[in-house]
Amino acid sequence: MTENAPRAVPVPAEPPRGTRRRRTPRLAATSGVLTYVFIALAVLLPVPYMLQLPGPVFNTLGDYQGDPMISVSGAKTYPTDGRIDMLTVAVSGGPGRDTFASQALGALLNGKETVIPTEAYYPLDTTRDDVTASNAVEMSSSQDVAVAAAMEQLDKPYSVHLLVDDVVAKSPAEGKLRKGDRLMSVNGKKLDSDPDAAQIMSATVRESNTVDVTIDRDGKSEDISLTPGDIDGNKAIGVTMKQDFEFPVDVKFNVDGVGGPSAGTMFALAIIDELTPGAMTGGKHVAGTGEITPDGTVGPIGGARQKVAAATEKGATLFLSPADNCAEVLSAADQSKITVARIDTLDDAQTTVEQYAAGNTSDLPKCPADGADNNEKGQ
Fold first, then answer.
1. What mean pLDDT do residues 126-153 have?
2. What is the fold, at CATH topology level, of the domain defined by 159-246?
3. What is the mean pLDDT of the chain?
4. Of 96, 142, 336, 358, which sits 20 to 30 A from 39 (CA to CA)?
5. Overall average pLDDT of the 115-139 stretch
């Protein structure tokens, strides 16, 4: 070999087939750290959703924190038995609270929780205090309306007045109407003692260029003329209103920390049960839900799946479902464990409970499983 001949450079041998090259410790460590980072993000990353979960259950015929949940005075009452459960929905997330991606995924998998976009329920500027205040107002209103519906069902007369609840600053009503004014008539249409007075007032304002209102202020009648203006894109005079009921009985509710209007139907049933002889349930365990109007119409609510889960967990054997919630109730994971009856009115609800108490389950109004006629019966 000559001195200038190129030197041979050794080439690393290929590893035997079936063997793997080992990763360097640094690469393996980096990969592991990234995995943990991605997991942490999945667990801790807030998402714009809120979760509906089964909430606490309250027996409207029983006690709450040592006192009756509903007590009636001013009329003869009767002992009762069994349970008429009002159902609630717990909410995770929403304004002022975070929901994390892992929670949302878990809720989708367990079948008893519902994941909904927060914006579908609340405007972006809604605060937690706004939600709490709104829920409290709705609960208070639902109690008054439940009493009114029960009085209607029992043919007990009552009166209702429409009051100014607040006046919007720099609105047509400012300086003319005051909080507490009793609205007697609008453009010649009687408002006082009409359960639909708020709707009549609102419709008249929308349809009129001039609104002539007769009010009662501190026992004196006054006539006031207003010109509706544009308030947040709506034709309005700038007042919020509330109903003030006068009932022949005094009903007290002991429900702290629960909001919303969905207990109205169960409240009304419990009041009727206390004011009529015998136990409406026959000692059985009934649960249900539904917003109610003074004339006894039962309206749909949110969280029906969660309420079915809560009812079955507590051992209820009959679930009263508003007609418009039937599809959601029948899709609930636990609905096969309980008898479901469809209700459209308070009278439907009372009749259904009484039939069930008597052992007549064959003729209960049922939720149609396939979109059939809502008047179809049988369970």
1. 73
2. Pdz3 Domain (2.30.42)
3. 82
4. 96
5. 57
Say yes or no to pLDDT of 180 above 60. Answer: yes
**What is the pLDDT, as a whole number, of residue 375?**
43
Q: Both tokens of residue 132?
A: 């709490």
Every domain range in the chain assigned CATH 3.30.230.10: 53-90+124-155+249-357
- Work out the average pLDDT over 351-374: 82
Fold of 53-90+124-155+249-357: Ribosomal Protein S5; domain 2 (3.30.230)
Taking the C-alpha atoms of residue 131 and residue 135, their distance in angstroms, rounded to an integer, is 6
Tokens of 133: 């205040």
Lowest mean pLDDT among 6-15, 106-115, 137-146, 170-179: 6-15
Distance from CA of residue 287 to its chain's centroid? 15
Give burial (CB, 10 Å; 0-12/13-18/19+) of 285.
middle
User: Is the per-residue pLDDT at 129 higher than 90?
Assistant: no
Q: How confident is the model at residue 374 (pLDDT cuts 50, 70, 90)?
A: very low
CATH 2.30.42.10 domain range(s) in the chain: 159-246
Mean pLDDT of 175-186: 96
- What's residue 377's pLDDT? 38
